[in-house]
């Protein structure tokens, strides 16, 4: 079964250490530098699962 957008976002919260300069980013899904990209990819996962997009996205 395909991942959901929520699955993708939860997968990014795996304890990885990401820095911007000297700042440690606690959560890439909520940090202003990354949240829009994370949400965009989550929407792609959700669209790929949507019945009306299955033929288009696979």
Would you kindly provide a written description of the structure presented here, covering whatever features stand out?
The protein is mainly alpha-helical. The protein has one domain (5-57): 4-hydroxybutyryl-coa dehydratase, domain 1 (Orthogonal Bundle). Helices cover 47% and strands 10% of the residues. The protein has three helices and two strands; from the N terminus they run H-E-E-H-H. Strands 1-2 form a two-stranded antiparallel ribbon. It is elongated and about 45 Å long. It starts with a helix and ends with a helix.
What tags apply to this protein structure?
two-stranded antiparallel ribbon, mainly alpha, 4-hydroxybutyryl-coa dehydratase, domain 1, 58 residues, elongated
Domain module tally: 1
CATH topology assignment? 4-hydroxybutyryl-coa dehydratase, domain 1
Radius of gyration of CA atoms, rounded to a whole number: 14 Å
Instruction: Walk across the major sheet and give the strand order.
Output: 1-2
How many DSSP-defined strands? 2
Task: Note poorly predicted spans.
Answer: none
For the record, give the distance between the C-alpha atoms at the N and C termini, rounded to a whole number: 13 Å
**Overall body shape:** elongated
What is the CATH first-level class name? Answer: Mainly Alpha
Topology as H/E string? HEEHH
Mean pLDDT: 92
- Which structural class fits the helix and strand makeup? mainly alpha
Report the total helices.
Answer: 3
Estimated share of beta-strand residues: 5-15%
Element layout with pairings:
Layout lengths: L4 H8 L5 E3 L2 E3 L9 H15 L4 H4 L1
Antiparallel strand pairs: 1-2
């Amino acid at each position: 079964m395909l991942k959901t957008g929520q699955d993708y976002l939860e997968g990014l919260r795996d304890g990885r250490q990401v820095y911007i300069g000297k700042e440690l980013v606690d959560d890439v899904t909520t940090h202003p530098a990354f949240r829009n990209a994370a949400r965009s990819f989550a929407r792609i996962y959700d669209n790929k699962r949507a019945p009306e997009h299955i033929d288009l996205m696979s």
